[in-house]
Amino acid sequence: MNSRHPVAASLAVAGYVIMIVPLLFVMATAFTAGNTLRFPPEGFSTRWFGAALANEPFVSALFGSLQLAFLATLLALLIGVPATLAIHRGRLPGKALVEGLFLSPLVVPELVLGLALYQQLVIGLRMDNFQVLLLGHTVLLLPYAVRVTGASLALVDGQVEEAARGLGASPLRAFLTVTLPLLRPGIFSAGLLAFITSFNNVPLSLLLQSFEFRTLPVTMLDYVQQNYNPMVAAVSTLVLAATVLVAVLAERTVGFARIFGGINQ
Amino acid sequence: MHTRRTALLAAPGLLLLLTAFLVPSAAMLLAPPGVGTGEILERLGDMLSNAYDLRIIGRTVGIGLVVTVVCVGLGFPIAYLLARSTSRWSGMLLALAIFPLLLSNVVRTYGWLVVLGSNGAVGQLLTGLGMVDKAPQLLYTDLAIVLGLTQLFLPLAVVSCYSAVAQIDAGLDEAARGLGARRMRTFWDVVVPLSAPGIVIAATLVFAGSATAYTTPYLLGGSRHRMLSTQLYSYSSVTIDWASASATALIMTVLVFAVSGLSSLAARRGRTS
């Protein structure tokens, strides 16, 4: 990478190897013709992809995960965007405390939140597993919605909305026709980040699973523990391909590094 | 906006946080069903004094620290080289380092089963080359957990360090060099101190994440290399031992809060000195 910094360059190469090489092995194993998880793969075939796509638990888990991620993202945005406006634009007493509260789910270990919801709401109040799971995911996504939309709101000039009000627009109309369109990239970034965070979540989805509802990552974990065949390698390769598509979509629209790295280039 | 209207905008979120986060968490930590707070404190005292639980706490803190050092040690050089590079590849390489943040932890961790498993790539390579007779046990070890967690949290370290290094004026490096400092000296005396806030954030995020991660110790540690997270899961879903589950959750939460507190203290010190 860089001949002037030989030590830094070798450490960097080691870092990339640890981040990327295991993924290459997953892809290679997915195309095996054999029945066990071994390397090098025995022959070439796409049969494990066929087996994964015909496997009812994996397919219904995929649709379940997509449904959960969609609903939780929608809820987090519907609740989080107005809260962001209140925090950044409103005259709210204890503004810093309120913002801290909205970001606080990031600090508590997810497994601890999952246990609290399972024990208190599912067992204690006999609430439905899926409803609690949806609430839990929404709580988990709120910090992303508030932080990413907030960063975008900071770039919007508040006087534009004031001007619209001055010209006779109602507060709602001024918001809908002036501020909201300017916030669109921020809301889109927040939504994408939230959707991916929910789709990939393990701790909450694991503790709040039920016979009727299980997410894809939890189904994969469970399958790996009970079987020694390469089915999950095929599922993983499909998830990897879909994630690359999402990354490309993010790059084309708002800029990948800005959303996921919080890096302003 | 008027105070009342503002309060209405934030109200649904505050209500959700109260009912689906703060109250259930407090109730779980202090008064689980059928268990008194005294019982939890007793179990907590027991955990902090018997060898079995202390080893799990020690492994959690130890693995968290090792992963933090490795992630900063590998992530900072990546961030530094990328931020200072003028190559047209640097954008691609930065994207490649951030991309794993989007990818499922299960998918990323699964790769190590293929690499480290008994029929995996490393074992086959070592036996194939005749270096060992029998593939060594690599999976279900602390080393496997450290590798898996490093893969998981290195992108986070790269991102935090990159933002910090990119803010430093590259002219300062050149000024130090112009005054006769060698590259190594410039790096340690100019670049590292100026990017210290980013390094502290990276270390905090990596430690908090790796000390509480579940997927990695579950898949790569097996049943003998337990961490607090895998213990918490088995207390809450296998043995249904609420007192032990709450005590474990309390230890995990305090650990993460303590590290976050220390890091914001360090950040404040850095700003005033």
TrEMBL record, chain B:
Superkingdom of the source species: Bacteria
Transmembrane segments: 60-82, 94-118, 138-165, 186-208, 242-267
Gene3D superfamilies with a match to the protein in the record: MetI-like
Primary localization: membrane
GO biological process per UniProt: transmembrane transport
SUPFAM superfamilies membership: MetI-like
Swiss-Prot/TrEMBL keywords: Cell membrane, Membrane, Transmembrane, Transmembrane helix, Transport
GO cellular component: plasma membrane
Subcellular location: Cell membrane
UniProt record similarity statement: Belongs to the binding-protein-dependent transport system permease family. CysTW subfamily.
Protein name in UniProt: ABC transporter permease
